[in-house]
Amino acid sequence: MLWPDSISGSIAETYREKIKKGEPIIIRDEKTASGRVHIGSMRGAAIHGIIHEILSKNGVSTEFLWEINDFDPMDGLPVYIDQSIFEQHLGKPLYTIPSPDGKAKNFAEFYADEFKGVIEGVGFKPKFYRGSELYLSGKMNAVIKIALEKAGVIRKIYKEVSGSIREDDWLPLNVICENCGKISTTKASNFDGEKVSYVCSDLEWTKGCGHKGTVSPFNGRAKLPWKVEWPAKWKVVGVTVEGAGKDHSTRGGSRDLAKRISKEVFEFEPPYDIPYEFFLVGGRKMSSSKGMGSSAKEIYDLLPPHIFRLA
């Protein structure tokens, strides 16, 4: 028995009642489109894609969803882009940053299109969607409200799981600054049920503008920090299966944190986990935002698709 059969069998057994009712198994993965997507990111695409194929072949109703995360901030500059042009955009959501070629819809879309072509080129067929769509459409509104109302619970979970201490007035939210458009530089406070106050301040790696304001955190005006956003998306999308690199599944890591937040804050059962190894370069993880490692497209162009799937 090969690993896909073993994992697929375990998933089918775990969710046998759900499957009997004809409810679909939702398989999800995502990639932040902060630069040319490196070959290591195909690990998740292949694992989730193969599990989807096996379950479907065995008659299980499944959906394979792939999120192009374009709502994350630009937190680093790939070495192959013009630093002088893009430095001003550090801290802004990727979907608001212009494309390097001046043709694609935005920065994230430019790099996402290349990776989508690779995923589809080797035969995987996920349904693609954008992280910005979840926020701008209002689909994230309910979980944002829950997270703000239960900020004290989240602070407690951070401390108990990872030992990370959050200040008593810390809220799990970053507002998009109304003045400069940055999201990394804002600190939110004083949620009154409808609006939050915020201040835009300097970080070590990018400047804030000093603006202070009060704004609704809904309909794409703010973003949850990713360790809270991860379980929030599980609930919003209804995820059943989602793996990640093994670093997330270490004791006290982001998966442990997300599982607690999923259960205790969002009241949603965490999805089936599939921890997997990394492809390394010089003993270090590859990075799309820093331009480290060969891109998936570069390797795809060298190998026949049926070999690339196994590489």
Can you walk me through this structure?
This protein is an alpha/beta fold and 311 residues long. Helix content is 36%, strand content 14%. It has twelve helices and twelve strands. The chain has helices spanning 3-14, 16-20, 42-57, 83-86, 107-121, 131-136, 141-149, 151-162, 226-237, 254-264, 296-300, 305-308, and strands at residues 25-32, 62-69, 127-130, 174-175, 186-189, 196-200, 212-215, 222-223, 244-245, 275-276, 280-281, 284-285. It has a three-stranded parallel β-sheet with strand order 1-2-3. It has a three-stranded antiparallel β-sheet with strand order 5-6-7, with no helix packed on it. Strand 9, helix 10 and strand 10 form a beta-alpha-beta unit. Helix 1 (3-14) crosses helix 3 (42-57), helix 8 runs antiparallel to helix 10 (254-264) and helix 9 packs across helix 10. The longest helix has 16 residues, at 42-57. It is globular and about 55 Å long.
